[in-house]
Amino acid sequence: MLKSAAVNLGEKLYRKLRPKLAEKYDPETYVVINPKSGEYVTAETSVEAMKKARAAYPKGKLFIAQVGRIAGLLK
Questions:
Q1: How much is the pLDDT for 72?
Q2: Could you give the 3-state DSSP secondary structure of residue 30?
Q3: pLDDT at 21
Q4: What percent of the chain is predicted at pLDDT more than 70?
């Protein structure tokens, strides 16, 4: 299965941000990245992270991960 461009870009941005995020946040913290802007939000739960991200970025695809591991793409 091929990954979409948004997944590839989101994963690339996450890997770049991961060292900074790991220093600042607990491994269980969720991060949602806007692949177009590179901006992100964090939260303690996936639901809270999605709500914050959709409030900040109401349209488009988003990439979600935990600071300690990759999760996937949100549409």
A1: 53
A2: strand
A3: 95
A4: 87
Phi and psi at 31, nearest 5°, equal -125, 135
Tokens of 28: 């269980």
- Locate 69 and state its tokens: 């591991």
User: Where are the domains positioned within the chain?
Assistant: 5-74
Q: What is the pLDDT of residue 69?
A: 77
**Contact (Cβ atoms closer than 8 angstroms) between residue 22 and residue 55:** no
Place of tokens 């991200």: 53
**Nearest Cα residue to 14 out of 57, 73, 60, 75:** 73
User: How far is 26 from 74, CA to CA, in rounded Å?
Assistant: 22
Give this prediction's pTM. Answer: 0.84
